[in-house]
Amino acid sequence: MQPEIFVDILQEAMFMVILLVCLVIVPSMIVGLIVAIFQAATSINEQTLSFLPRLIVTLAAIVYGGHWGINHLMEYTIGMFMRVQQVVG
User: Fold this and answer.
1) Which PANTHER family does this entry report, sorted A to Z (predicted)?
2) pLDDT tens across 61-75, in order?
3) Could you give the CA distance from residue 70 to residue 80 in angstroms, rounded to a whole number?
4) CA 20 to 30 Å from 77, out of 12, 15, 28, 53?
5) Is residue 28 within 8 Å of residue 57, measured between CB atoms?
6) Burial class (CB in 10 A: 0-12, 13-18, 19+), 22
7) Domain range for 38
């Protein structure tokens, strides 16, 4: 068991987490920024105006990007099971 194996596994795990979180968070942040600019330009201070578009975009990102994210997660999990011999033995 070399430490390099564990560093590689941790690096791949962190990259997978960042990838899957960005799938949902980035579209929501972009819509939130656009709505915030619109609210600042028009002086509308309504809380629900920023919440509803972000919710809809987040749900759409999960619906349309979920299949891609689950495929990547399955590939990562299968790769981890294939590396068990490398880690244990």
Assistant:
1) FLAGELLAR BIOSYNTHETIC PROTEIN FLIQ (PTHR34040:SF8)
2) 999 999 999 999 999
3) 15
4) 28
5) yes
6) middle
7) 3-88
